[in-house]
Write a structure and sequence with these properties.
By secondary structure, the chain is α+β, with helices and mostly antiparallel strands. The chain contains 8 helices and 16 strands. InterPro entries: Aminotrans_IV, Aminotrans_IV_CS, Aminotransferase-like, BCAT-like_C, BCAT-like_N, Class-IV_PLP-Dep_Aminotrnsfr.
């Protein structure tokens, strides 16, 4: 069976899927997206992804009329017909197609695209045991990265820098030398038993995996400080870690050329990874 995509109400072979050349997502990055983990055929944290999409639609004045129930039905249908038990569901919603003009078109009809591709989450189990390396780059993104838009060129360049350096991720550092987040992940350090991460603001994405991790940590009575931390603090931390939909949690054992802590995954990262794994199992039945 060929891989299928969803484009504005139709299922079509991925190789034939397309949007109009004047779609505003293509020409202006006037579009939002979500990436949802599918494990054991079930979508992880799906209601939270929908809620974030709705918030961002309101912030960008995109009138997305499809109901949550209908969107869920179409997403599940796409997952089922593609026959992938472990996968990533990608959803993209643009303002629609119109003559190229910066201002909003009158009464646009949003363009909804969804794809599913196989993803091996078991690879993360091995990475949790070894940890990963990150590099640091200057944060060159626009000021509203709290909205999950497709305007990701600065992130693309940061991720390419990481790839060229043999690193898993690039941490984005602000002009005041504070670490904000990664190119596609949220960032954390651990010091004296406390989990530290940048507070929610217009400078970071409110990650779904981030929210889950902080909830689980609080339930486990792990102290949390939501505050900016400097690169110097990160280099002197006992541990560091990152989270994302595709991670979902990985220890960071090296920043640039500096070993963090012992240079191996620490006890806090291992404890948090176990909590996250248990949550994934509870929601989907998937086990590492």
């Amino acid at each position: 069976m060929p891989q299928l995509a969803y484009v504005d109400g139709r299922l079509t072979p991925l190789r034939d899927a397309h949007v109009h050349v004047e779609d505003r997502g293509l020409q202006f990055a006037d579009a939002l997206y979500e990436v949802t983990a599918v494990l054991n055929g079930k979508m992880l944290d799906w209601p939270h992804h929908i809620a974030r999409l709705r918030r961002n639609c309101a912030a960008l004045f995109i009138d997305f009329a499809m109901s949550d129930a209908a969107l869920t039905l179409q997403a599940r249908r796409l997952i089922a017909v593609n026959g992938q038990a472990d996968a990533l569901l990608y959803l993209q919603l643009s303002r629609g197609t119109a003559k190229r003009d910066h201002g909003f078109p009158a009464n646009p009809r949003p363009t909804l695209v969804m794809t599913v591709r196989r993803f091996d989450f078991h690879q993360r189990t091995a990475q949790q045991k070894t940890g990963v390396k990150v590099i640091t780059v200057n944060d060159m993104r626009w000021r509203r990265v709290d909205m999950k838009t497709t305007g990701l060129l600065a992130n693309v360049l940061a991720k390419q820098d990481a790839r060229a350096a043999g690193a898993f991720e690039a941490w984005l550092v602000a002009p005041d030398n504070t670490v904000r987040e990664g190119g596609s992940t949220n960032a954390y350090i651990v010091k004296a038993g406390r989990l530290i991460t940048h507070p929610l603001s217009e400078s970071i994405l409110p990650g779904i995996a981030r929210a889950t991790l902080l909830r689980l940590a609080r339930e486990a009575q792990i102290p949390i400080d939501e505050r900016p931390f400097s690169l110097a603090e990160a280099l002197a931390a006992d541990e560091a870690l990152l989270t994302s939909t595709t991670a979902p949690l990985l220890p960071v054992v090296r920043i640039d050329e500096n070993a963090i802590g012992t240079g191996s995954p620490g006890p806090m990262a291992s404890r948090l990874a176990a909590l996250v794994s248990a949550e994934i199992t509870a929601q989907t039945g998937w086990r590492p």
